[in-house]
Amino acid sequence: MxxxxxxxxxxxxxxxxxxxWLLTICVLIFAMVVVGGITRLTESxxxxxxxxxxxxxxxxxxxxxxxxxxxxYQRIPEYQQLNRGMTLTEFKNIFFWEWxxxxxxRVIGLVALLxxxxxxxxxxxxxxxxxxxxxxxxxxxxxxxIGWWMVASGLSERTDVSHVRLAVHLLTALLxxxxxxxxxxxxxxxxxxxxxxxxxGLWTLGALFVQLLFGAYVAGLDAGYxxxxxxxxxxxxxxVGAPWLEPALRNFVDxxxxxxxxxxxxxxxxxxxxxxxxxxxxxxxxxxxxxLVHAAIGTQILLxxxxxxxxxxxxxxxxxxATAALxxxxxxxxxxxxxxxxxxxxxxxxxxxxxxxxxxAGR
Length: 363
Known about the structure:
Pathway: Porphyrin-containing compound metabolism; heme A biosynthesis; heme A from heme O: step 1/1. Keywords: Cell membrane, Heme biosynthesis, Iron, Membrane, Metal-binding, Oxidoreductase, Transmembrane, Transmembrane helix. The protein is mostly helical. The protein has helices at about 1-10, 15-40, 65-75, 75-80, 90-120, 130-150, 165-190, 200-220, 250-255, 255-285, 285-310, 315-340, and strands spanning about 195-200, 360. Residues about 1-10, about 345-355 and about 355-363 have low confidence and may be disordered.
């Protein structure tokens, strides 16, 4: 009797369709990261001073509405100290990018919610994946709140947003991106069996997230403008005459020169881990994933150098941020391919744990 009841439910599961939905979310998050980079680089992030998740979807449509939004912007320190004298037309330009960024957030929220309801109602989500898809939706909601928390830091006393909150905002987006991609790949594995992340994959992702953290600090502190030379900072490896904050640990968060220095050279730590991962996955039969990791890490390092040498040119810096997300995707895909090539704990009857804290395989 139990088998007769379970069989119809099992046949209604649609892992490939659920995977395609999650990959769509990944594409939208990637677009969000790119637009977020443009928003930051054009200093547009504080142009909308209110958080209206629903009614804010409609931009100003009349002259009076535009003037009202401009008046709200004129009250904050960024305008009063940096942009006094800005015209309404100039304001519209920065308003555009922040509005697009928030609009993408709303789209991602709907794409994460509506198909989830539909799949759940039709019992199309395979067993064991209901809570994972729910986590993805909740993560998207939390990310929206973090975005406003970040913007709020620049509305009263500062002329920009907190670089620490910016880092939290970016890393949360990329964490959701990585988790969603891993879940989508799990759903495409035979019988939708979850895979455990290999140790080398965990170390590579850890190294990359440190680099992404300092990249966010560089962006938030405008540290990319500190030195436009490479490999030396000016004429020295590290400028000995640079200001040093007290206590010393503050320099790893608040000192633009130290942050840029770490971001420059930690990239090669990521490179080392990425090469090891790429070689292992190639030996396991993942030649395509190996090529993607090599191409992404090489391109990303070259774009990082070019960002410095061009004085943080907008198109180069945006490409650098976009490639960071692609590098993350390639590493996740390579780690998943390596995990799939190994004997699956599920297939051995041992049980398995998806990409969550503590889910580490010994490879």
